[in-house]
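The following record pairs a protein chain with its ligand, zinc ion.
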Amino acid sequence: MNNTSQENDKKVLNNSANKKTFQSRYNNQSHRKYKKQGKTKNNTKTVKHGVPPLNDNDIRVIPLGGVEQVGQNMNIIETKDDIFIVDIGIEFSNTEETPGVDYIIPNIKYLLDKKEKIRGVFITHGHLDHIGAFPYIIDQLGYPPVYCGLLTKWMIDKRNSEFPHLEKLTYNVVEPGQRVTVGPNEMKVQVFHVTHSIPDALGYSFETKEGNIIFAGDTKLEHIGGAPIQLEYDSYGKLEHGDQKNLLFLSDSTNSEQPGWSKNEGAIIENIIELIAEAKNRVFLGTFASQIVRITAIMDGAHKYGKKIVLEGRSMKTNVDICIKSGRWTPPKGLIITADEAKNIAPDKLVYLLTGSQGEEFAALMRISMKRHPKIRFTSRDTVILSSSVIPGNNKAVRKLKDNLSRHDLRIVQYRTSDIHASGHGNQDELLWIQKTINPKFFAPIHGHHSMLRAHAQAVIERNNYPKENIIVVPENGSVIDVNRNSFKVHKAKAPNNMTVVEGFRVGDIQDVVIKDRKTLTNEGIFVVIATIDIKNGRLRKSPDIISRGFVYLRDSQKLINETRNLVKKTIVKHASHQKPINFDVIKKHVTDDVARFLVQNTGKRPIVIPVILGI
Ligand SMILES: [Zn+2]
């Protein structure tokens, strides 16, 4: 995913002041959890899930996440003796669907009693929706060896460094073209190049005895006017060799609904460098910190025109720093300077690379636009380039950012009117080209909401003339696909797939009802009725008390409150006076029902009604 992953990822990561507290509480939490179950961390436990055992001839593939959303990517490949994992990502929560939740992570219960079969974790690239859940999961999996590209290794280590309780990981850094042998049963895995918005993106072809199971992660193509460059043919066209055929390809669907070919990243970079070269004053470029390919290319381009770069925003600085330390990019000497040093440089030589193009409140771009940045102020001579699309859900924030920028009367260049942004995910024609080039026996669209997977499948059927019966549209996270050279089966029973969330210091399942309550509290408020009943005669001792939050302002709603009090009195008298002894549960239920009905009839709102009935 090429989005605000890193920008948004500040609740836990940026909060270094709380780091120690987080660690100790996190550890205590998991310690308590295991103690309660009567197990220690090293013991395995059996999880009931009703998934039938694997036939010796079949290969099992389970997407544990990423088929009902964009994010939370994690897949497992299981053979008789081995398990391989591809990606361990998070999904970012949003306040509308999962209020109060920081991240959603894959549910790994299916793996907990099979840990000894896990031979390796293969990571396609370093974006958080592919590596972000490492700190919450890798210890529970018993620290299997990790296979990934060089930059990806650095990104994982950076992510894990905020969680000092984790053991050091065992890495096997791999490169395109390499064919690695993994585990005691010597599974051959072909590593291949993938074009995405971050360097060192890799695909993996697991050469099982039934054929190749292929994952490419997030994909787009480098192309010239719809003609892929030779590198793409070499990557996707050479996975079959001898009798080793492509059996199942699981493919990115994020932009499957976008027609044609995506804009060529090379052209985008050229356009931006041209804008920078022509600028007579300072240029501020807001882009996703995850667009590392673009960021480093722009810095190289700016250098050619004698410009200096100021980096602002934590994730921007971190990602560039990782690129330099890992040796993936070496900045020309003196190119990157600080905001203080910039004060002595001519304005036409200055380029600022900033986070916050999605209007994030505390990111650099917004802070400068609101005159809250300690070192940088806009002038009307500046140019701001917004080199990013608006992620759905961020529209209001981006509008606010643009309004704030506009108040400075400066020049704004945005992607809708100029070719200055392309997604890291290929459009439909690119996905179809990849599918056709790999030409697998079976095909499964993954990485996306269900409608994106369907659109992808439909395009493959209609435009690639691919047989519908050979397509697996995975219905849900945890769906179990058993496949062999002749056929496949998607089981009714699923691997455990309850939503697993990170909320502050807690990691665990969350029940739908909790999310539902949070939504109601947010949208409708809460209404508490407190009544005291004389247990001898079932009468009220005094008029009921009412407390309400987020529903109506009590002082302005005396009529409604008095009527509610009368209703509560009536309800209690009606039901309590005949009971001996008084059944408080029955009374509570009647009060809840009657009050909720009365409130919705009179206000159209449905607050959570909580009766507190005391007997004396
Ligand atoms: Zn990505």
